[in-house]
Amino acid sequence: MPFVRIDAHGGDTDDDRLDALGRAVHDALVETLGIPSDDRFQVLTAHDAARGTLRHDDYLGVRRDAGIVFVAITLRAGRTTGQKEALYRRIAQLAEEYAGTEPRNVFVTLTENTSADWSLGDGLAQYVGSGSC
């Protein structure tokens, strides 16, 4: 069960763009990591580009601009480096296809944890002793 946060500069189509980015990340997770299609937990936030609430530089030769999107994914550990690389590629491809976001502006981080680090409601650690995604 991944938990996804997406932060993007806003614009005229904040809601449409954020929805498209959320779909892009979710579809990439389903395609590359086998996440169940109904396992979608996301926080999507638009930031005021005029006030510069998202900061970025041209680190490692990647030229970013106001179209930058930060994608932070928390999920349980266990994916290979190859799976993660496929996920990054697919998110960038789908963000461009669905939301018109240039791949150079898609910044993704993964944070891994264990089954005991999740409570999906009711104050329970549902994954403890479970083999679910």
Describe it.
The protein has two helices and four strands; from the N terminus they run βαββαβ. With 133 residues, it is α/β, with parallel strands linked by helices. It has a four-stranded mixed beta sheet, covered by helices on one side. Strand 3 (69-76), helix 2 (81-99) and strand 4 form a beta-alpha-beta unit. Helix 1 runs antiparallel to helix 2 (81-99).
Protein traits:
alpha/beta; 133 residues; four-stranded mixed sheet; 2 helices; 29% helix; single chain
Largest beta-sheet details: 4 strands, mixed
Q: Helical region count?
A: 2
Mean pLDDT: 88
Radius of gyration: 15 Å
Helix amount, in percent? 25-40%
What fraction strand? 15-25%
List the secondary-structure elements in sequence, H or E: EHEEHE
User: Tell me, what's the shape?
Assistant: globular
Number of strands: 4
Low-confidence spans: none
Output the structural class: alpha/beta
How far from one another are the termini? 5 Å
Strand arrangement within the widest β-sheet reads 2-1-3-4
Fold blueprint:
Blueprint: E1 3-9, H1 14-33, E2 42-47, E3 69-76, H2 81-99, E4 106-113
Parallel strand pairs: 1-2, 3-4
Antiparallel strand pairs: 1-3
The gist of it:
This protein has helices at 14-33, 81-99; strands at residues 3-9, 42-47, 69-76, 106-113. It is α/β, with parallel strands linked by helices.
